[in-house]
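Worked problem 6 (solution included).
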Amino acid sequence: MKTLVALAIALCATLVPARAASGPAKPWNFIVILVDDLGWTDLSCMGSTFYETPNIDRLAAQGMKFTQAYSACTVCSPTRASLLTGRYPARLHVTDWIKGHRDAKAKLRVPDWTMHLPLEEQTLAEALKPAGYATVSIGKWHLGGPGFFPEQQGFDQNIGGYDRGQPPSYVAPYKIPTLAEGPPGEFLTDRESAEAVKFISANRDRPFFVYLPHYAVHQPIAGKPEVVERYRRKARPDASHQDPAYAALIESVDDSVGRITRTLDALGIADRTVVIFTSDNGGLTVGRVPPTSNVPLRVGKGSAYEGGVRVPFIVRWPGHVAPGTTEATPVISPDIFPTLLEIAGVPPLRDRAIDGRSIVPLLEHRRGFTRDAIFWHYPHYHPGGATPYGAVRSGALKLIEFYEDDHVELYDLGADIGEKNDLARGRPADVRRLRKQLADWRRSVGAQMPTPNPAYVPPPSAPPAPGGSPEVKP
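Solution. The predicted structure is:
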């Protein structure tokens, strides 16, 4: 099947220009940096006064910062599958982290979701391959075990990706089977950026796609001791951001961004390289001392609310994105797939629906970007309290439907970013319209739904609030 996919793409590629968007004489290079569990405010350019991210801030100053960007899911694996294919997790049936969680006594029985990225799906690596791109995946994969690794999904190289969702250690020895051990004491984020620099340098004279899904800033929260100590001296107990180890881990990602962008400058290829920086879900906000806070957003990773899905999103595209621009149009992870293909002048396969929309018009500040709504579908329980739900955002309105009892909540995000004022009772027409839109979308993508659980055991006391934020899981 993979061979047929490549042949089909190659045939289509001969029928279109080398680049759909105007650009340099050589094809565009692409670097997608995906940070694990990075919250919406976890960068200084996104409002943090504690975390220090000068290199990421510089990237934003040289490109475009999106203020209403979303992950495709409130947990990691579905977002990763969606980013790589341009398709919603609900359509892929990859709707929970792999291997997820089952509660035998819960009110609903969760569907049998797909616990790998299916091989018949077309990834960015596969779509770009016929156009001559060198491709590499460096870091966290978490989209299936052996037989479903990056090298089976079109990537020339897989450095550090396997079925686990968190590193056994951030300090060598790493005990990651797909990553050659580094010298004792080497830091994992440094190693990932070193591998990216090595790949970029080796492929400077041909187009390349670097997919860099850092293991950071997922638990186990760890940082370099000297950096942790510096943040410990800076921390204030009354601040929303105050965890020195988490801050040090964020700084390691910032160091990585700086190392990569300096390499592009040194090689003279920065002007023909598109860099995208984002996260796979909102920041983690549970635990005795939560690693971070998403305030003013409500709660965090694993929840139905903005803190679970609103994420940083930065794009640097030299010559096309005006430096230092900000864009408030909502965008979502699957938009990356059609955006990169449009810039590369490579068409996706015609035999499948692509849910993402190319954001090239937004990046170039011109008309042409249209979308009625964006959607989420999480038919699962998470150990920290999140219950099955679906959601739709249309304009400034966001409706959340909780599947256990079919109740809905409605928020005007333009006036209430913290989702404190539920408007559902006072705006029945909007509830009916959005609920129908969500149901129609679920049918159109073949979303799998939970079903009543005959083994349900009611809790002895009131259950956690729907959409609650979960405990940490890989």
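Discussion: The chain has two domains: 2-373, 375-452.
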